[in-house]
Amino acid sequence: MNRGKLFIISGPSGSGKDTIMQGALKKHPEIKLSISSITRDMRVGEVEGEKYHFISRDEFEEMLKNDMLLEHNVFVGNYYGTPKAPVEECLANGNDMILEIDVNGAAQVREKMPEAISIFIMPPSFEVLKKRLSGRGTETEELVNKRLTAALSEIARAKEYDYIVVNDVIDEAIDDLLSIILSERLRINRQKQIIDEVLEKC
Ligand code: 5GP
């Protein structure tokens, strides 16, 4: 069985990466999403275990101590991390997996797993990003400003990625993301087995 592929998706808050990913996963439910463990408060509408496990700082630090995380980062004062075991299990079972993580986490994963494919979701402009973030109405102005500052430094690192998807028209961005994932599946290193099988039966 071929090992699954690991896709890293980053983009500033407000870039629309969640909507794009949900759209892509709806069309391709065989792609798994890694569930991060995080210490920030749950937002209205969020569900425990859906995208995040909401845990305490003590629990997070315990995971860190026990080397249970593939990567982690502190973002706007909270811990965010990818539990290692589910990623390994998913890939070993031949399933593709998406890690939706920030630029620092992405750099850590590239170090450990250079075969991972990284995709950066860009807002079409800073103005659009600002409007999307303030329009959410789920956070204070101070937090929105902190997220905007973080967004600028994330965009400055977009060149570290293998692919850029610009989220201007949502359906096009979903198709762009899926084209990347589907073409990566066709790479030669995943198809060698097929070549051997065909040749063996000649
Ligand atoms: P939010 O609080 O808006 O859900 O996420 C804030 C940032 O944390 C986003 O850039 C998101 O991609 C990132 N993030 C979510 N989960 C993880 C994780 O497990 N590791 C890292 N490094 N970043 C994460």
In percent, how helical is the residue content? 40-55%
- Tell me the radius of gyration: 18 Å
Count helical runs: 8
N-to-C SSE string, H for helix and E for strand: EHEEEHEEHEHEHHEHH
Oligomeric nature of the chains: single chain
In words, what does this structure look like?
With 202 residues, the protein is an alpha/beta fold. Helix content is 46%, strand content 20%. 29% of the residues are buried. The longest helix has 16 residues. The protein is globular and about 70 Å long. The chain has a domain of 135 residues: Rossmann fold (3-Layer(aba) Sandwich), CATH 3.40.50. It contains eight helices and nine strands. The protein has a five-stranded parallel sheet with strand order 2-7-1-8-9, with helices on both faces. The chain binds guanosine-5'-monophosphate. The site of guanosine-5'-monophosphate has 15 residues, from strand 5, strand 6 and helix 4.
Topology:
Layout: E1 6-10, H1 17-27, E2 32-33, E3 36-38, E4 52-54, H2 57-65, E5 69-75, E6 78-83, H3 84-92, E7 97-100, H4 103-112, E8 117-122, H5 126-135, H6 141-155, E9 163-166, H7 170-185, H8 188-200
Parallel strand pairs: 1-7, 1-8, 2-7, 3-4, 8-9
Antiparallel strand pairs: 3-6, 5-6
Helix pairs in contact: 1-7, 5-6
Bound molecules: guanosine-5'-monophosphate.
Main traits of this protein?
202 residues, alpha/beta, Rossmann fold, 4-stranded mixed β-sheet, 8 helices
